[in-house]
Specification:
362 residues; alpha/beta; seven-stranded parallel beta sheet; two-stranded parallel sheet; 11 helices; globular; binds nicotinamide-adenine-dinucleotide; binds uridine-5'-diphosphate
Length: 362
């Protein structure tokens, strides 16, 4: 069956996209792969609140049922334990494809699972066991594109600023092709997402699938994995636990941190809008890791110590999104600066780390 994509979500979609007064918006059927994860679960909250029906597809590799439990019992919500590497048959209007072992620690201990590049894939085909593991980004994305093609759904890929690698252009504009080491420790993630972007554009050009591509910059907020090794979650958890903040290298490398609600707003605007992308979605506020440590000290514990540790290989020296395109074409820009967003994340971490116990850091 090939259903007709109805971008307005209104039953009156054949009325030139205009919604006559008094007509109720028809809820869409939306799949969110990776919907039990950090970003996915916040997206699900917004979609459910908007009146849509949401199917979360997640294998709980890094996600958690707790993130979506508050929707259990809602007839517009479904949760399917499924690995996107396996084919999936559903009838839907939109697919938000977030499933991916995302955090550095997770993708480093299972690197082949996030590998991609067709060339590497060809070699890997020779080694059956690696073929078995090689996946989420290629096969998972391929399956979701196949699903989108079959049912005429619109497909959104959550790609990453990592496609720019260790960028030689600053800030990064979408037209920059990046500087990625194809054989380094981070490559499984970077190249995985680059190949996912390639597949997405091939299905768009070759099969007419409606696609959208977001390049997401470092995002933080409530429900982030506590011990996944990312810098914001590490610093916040360390400060709360009265441990030293671990700064890797000299701490002068930069990142731009976006609060999760800003990202979700950007993803939804991208999905509903007319433009394929890719679009950078990130907060241009740029911080060195030492500056970030200082903001965490200000927010949680001014006496928190800093401990320097060796940096990881191929760590990008700087990263900051140019969001001119998203501003102009999606009417989007982030609203929550780091010093406003961080306290909201800290309350969530405090609750999850200490539960009802008294927090020793206060
Ligand atoms: P996350 O780890 O919290 O969420 C990913 C979800 O995908 C998890 O629930 C996990 O269980 C699920 N998953 C992984 N492999 C799967 C598979 N094979 N089948 C089904 N489900 C699977 O990560 P996140 O931070 O919420 O990231 C969401 C998306 O955004 C990812 O695609 C990630 O690459 C992208 N992204 C995130 C950031 C960030 O800073 N958070 C930055 C750039 C890009
Ligand atoms: N696929 C899926 N659900 C669907 C349709 C396709 O999971 O509803 C998978 C399918 O198993 C295949 C991939 O998507 O592995 C690509 O599908 P496509 O139809 O584009 O390619 P083909 O099956 O013709 O190779
Ligand atoms: N980093 C750090 N201390 C930590 C974890 C990370 O100084 O405890 C640094 C890391 O070396 C990198 C930056 O913080 O330069 C961002 O790392 P993260 O893994 O959060 O994101 P990514 O490198 O994927 O942008």
């Amino acid at each position: 069956r090939r259903s007709v994509y109805n971008p307005t979500g209104f039953e009156s979609f054949n009325m030139g996209g205009k919604i006559p007064l008094g007509l109720k918006r028809k809820g869409l059927r939306i799949v969110v792969t990776g919907g039990a994860g950090f970003v996915g679960s916040h997206l699900v909250d917004r979609l459910i609140a908007r009146g849509d029906s949401v199917i979360v597809v997640d294998n709980f590799f890094t996600g958690n049922k707790d993130n979506v439990m508050h929707h259990f019992g809602n007839p517009r919500f479904e949760l399917i334990r499924h690995d996107v590497v396996e084919p999936l048959l559903l009838e839907v209007d939109q697919i938000y494809h977030l499933a991916c072992p995302a955090s550095p620690v997770h993708y480093k201990y299972n690197p082949v699972k996030t590998i991609i590049s067709f060339f590497i894939a060809l070699l890997i085909f020779i080694i059956i066991i690696i073929v078995m593991m090689m996946i989420t980004n290629v096969v998972g994305t391929l399956n979701m594109l196949g699903l989108a093609k079959r049912v005429g759904a619109r497909f959104l890929l959550t790609s990453t600023s990592e496609v720019y690698g260790d960028p030689l252009q600053h800030p990064q504009v979408e037209t920059y092709w990046g500087n990625v080491n194809p054989i380094g420790v981070r490559s499984c993630y970077d190249e995985g997402k680059r190949t996912a972007e390639t597949l997405t554009m091939d299905y768009h050009r070759g099969a007419g699938v409606e696609v959208r591509i977001a390049r997401i910059f470092n995002t933080y907020g409530p429900r982030m994995c506590i011990d996944d090794g990312r810098v914001v979650s590490n610093f916040v958890a360390q400060a709360l636990r009265k441990e030293p903040l671990t700064v890797y290298g000299d701490g002068k490398q930069t990142r731009s941190f976006q609060y999760v609600s800003d990202l979700v707003e950007g993803l939804m605007r991208l999905m509903e809008g007319e433009h394929v992308g890719p679009f950078n979605l990130g907060n241009p506020g740029e911080f060195t890791m030492l500056e970030l440590a200082q903001v965490v000290q200000e927010t949680i514990d001014p006496n928190a110590k800093i401990e320097f540790k060796p940096n990881t290989e191929d760590d990008p020296h700087k990263r900051k999104p140019d969001i001119t395109k998203a501003k102009e074409l999606l009417g989007w820009k982030p609203k929550v600066p780091l010093r406003k967003g961080l306290p909201m994340m800290v309350s969530d971490f405090r609750q999850r780390i200490f539960g009802d116990q008294k927090n020793p850091a206060t």
